[in-house]
Amino acid sequence: MLSSSTTTPGPFRHFRTPLSLAAASALLLSGCSVANSEPNAAAEGAGTLRIALAIEPTTLEACDSTLSSTGMVVRSNITEPLIERNPTSGDLEPLLATGWEATGEKEWTFTLREDVTFHDGTAFNAEAAAAAIDRAVNGHLGCDVEGQVFGDADVVVDAVDDTTLTVTTEQPDPVLPLRLSFIEIGAPAEGSEDAKVREPVGTGPYSIQSWDAGIKISLARNDSYWGEGPAYPAVDYQWRAEGTVRAAMVAGGEADIATGISSADGAGDLAVAYPNNETVALRFSGDIAPLDDIRIRQAINYAIDRDGITGSLYVDESEPAEQIVPPGVVGFNESLEPWESDVDKAKELVAAAKADGVDTDAKITIVARNGQFPKISQLTEVLQEQLAQVGLNAEAKVVETSVGLQYQVEPFIRDEGAIAMLIQHGNQAGDASFSVDSYMASDGSMSMFGTPEFDAILDDAATKTGDERQKAYADAFEYERENLVQFAFIARMTGLMSKSPKVDYTPNSSTNDELRLSEIRPAQ
User: Fold this and answer.
1) How far is CA 314 from its chain centroid?
2) What is the spatial distance between Cα 148 and Cα 82, in angstroms, rounded to a whole number?
3) Are 145 and 136 in contact (CB under 8 A)?
4) In the chain, helix, strand, coil percent, each to 5?
5) Residue 473 near residue 432 (C-beta atoms within 8 A)
6) Cα(515)–Cα(186) distance, rounded to whole angstroms?
7) DSSP 8-state class, residue 34
8) What is the maximum span of the chain, computed from C-alpha positions, in angstroms?
9) Please, which residues bridge with residue 279 across strands?
10) In angstroms, rounded to a whole number, what is the distance separating the alpha carbons of residues 229 and 44?
């Protein structure tokens, strides 16, 4: 998992120390069992829940559920993890595991829930959990959860008996339970060790009824669910690229919830804003001219009018961003400010680079994934114009998700010249390590370049705890800005959805990544 500007990674880069006080305090908590129950009383008279998404998922593969488009449908709906993180408190809560504890310097032991079955009737047990974890972390499928959460380090997973599972790491890992909260457990299937599964079989409150490609995904309530039954007997997902169309579907009674809308989409009083930890940025390739010169990367930062973008394109929905993580995440640097817009300074940097022989006329392609967030096409065009204004040859390219992921995740498309990838990154874990490991370290699955010096700084930060950890990552973000400039951070977004008055649901900071259907009820 190395970009072309690489160093030999430390052997355990991705095994980090505590992520947040809330998460750390929850690690040794044991959960209580939830008895199998009938569907919630609120389900009486409830029909099909209809959800309008911005894009169709490319897959429902459980080990790729850290991709927002997949996780929105799959996570804690079709499949479930052993442990679930509460997005409001940050606490870890029991799900398929009822308790967990450190039973050795490198070993964790998990007690699993009894009398749980997969949708196909096979038993959920420690052997099935071990197979799912081993497949996602140790396998060779290129699972997104491996690159984003575990990296190259493997784990040893053993089923002691039906309800006891041990996981042993290469180095002590106090936050292993938090990492495992990102792994969804699917039923073992023939051939799944060698290939990804388009439609997983899980233990969740819903099973996949049908997937009509390009039209809709339909889920059916799992009436044998081990927990409290969800309110709606069926769920239909449809997708419409235009936010105005999605908002109109709710207003017209064709959908109950529409995700990823903007204030300009006409949702009116049906719009619901919610906290969102997503940061929008340009991620640079640092080994191809002209982006291989730091002055060009700095020039782009000066060229971008963040106040104009947040004040007009995303008015009341965003604020200028200065780093990859938002406030509240361990490592956030309070002293950093967004780059100021200075066209003259940008032009000076471009001219200086050109005078030194940098091919400043070489094309920079701004790549964006269609539908990833509202008005992404418009934003791409604005960025193209702002780069052109300072003398750079920028070209906008908006692609579908399946193609966009080839630009975003290693091994990357590298035969099209310099790339400035428009990304939206959210840190759901509450700690900077979950951002820097993927996006800033030389061997990160979504990092296109780094340096040995910066890798050493990140490795050192990973060994810290408490206030020292906070300071170490904050200092690392300042170092990146002064010495690398891997990104042009643009905006920190506020989430917005359109919700029918017939539906009772309160979105949270995780809603863009996982829309938990069990939390949605008919309004009373």
Assistant:
1) 21
2) 18
3) yes
4) 30, 25, 50
5) yes
6) 18
7) -
8) 73
9) 425, 492
10) 12
302, containing H or E segment: helix 294-303
Encoding tokens for residue 143? 């699972």
* Each residue's pLDDT expressed in tens, for the chain with a length of 524 residues: 222 222 223 333 333 333 333 333 333 333 333 334 444 444 445 799 999 999 999 999 999 998 889 999 999 999 999 999 888 887 899 999 999 999 999 999 999 999 999 999 999 999 999 999 999 999 989 898 988 888 778 999 999 999 999 999 998 887 799 889 999 999 987 777 778 998 999 999 999 999 999 999 999 999 999 999 999 999 999 999 999 999 999 999 999 999 999 888 999 999 999 888 789 999 999 999 999 999 999 999 999 999 999 999 998 889 999 999 998 888 999 999 999 999 999 999 999 999 999 999 999 999 999 888 888 999 999 999 999 999 999 999 999 988 998 999 989 999 999 999 999 998 877 789 889 989 999 999 999 999 999 999 998 998 787 899 899 999 999 999 999 999 999 999 888 999 999 999 999 888 988 999 999 999 98
What one-character-per-residue DSSP string does 353-422 give?
HHHTT--TTS-EEEEEETTSSTTHHHHHHHHHHHHHHTT--EEEEEE-HHHHHHHHSTT---SSSEEEEE
**Number of C-beta neighbours around residue 345 at 10 A:** 17
Going through 95-176 in order, the beta strands assigned E by DSSP cover 97-102, 107-112, 155-161, 164-169
- Record the tokens describing residue 470, joined without a space: 């906070």
C-alpha 142/C-alpha 161 separation (Å) is 29
Nearest Cα residue to 508 out of 121, 76, 4 = 76
Could you write out the DSSP letters of every residue in 226-293? SSPBPS-SEEEEEE-S-HHHHHHHHHTTS-SEE-S--GGG--GGGEEEE---EEEEEEEPSSSTTTTS
**Of the candidates 4, 69, 52, 21, the residue with the CA atom closest to the CA atom of residue 400:** 69
CA atoms within 13 Å, Cβ hemisphere of 77? 31
Q: What does pTM read for this prediction?
A: 0.75
What residue type is 78 in one-letter code? I
Q: Other C-beta atoms within 10 Å of 327: how many?
A: 9
By the 10 Å C-beta count (0-12 exposed, 13-18 middle, 19+ buried), 52 is classed as buried
DSSP β-ladder status, 155-161 and 418-426:
unpaired
Q: Residue 441: which of 476, 474, 403 has the closest Cα?
A: 476
DSSP H or E stretch at residue 306: helix 306-308
Q: At what angle do helices 294-303 and 343-355 cross, to 10 degrees?
A: 160
Rounded to whole angstroms, the Cα distance separating 410 from 83 reads: 28
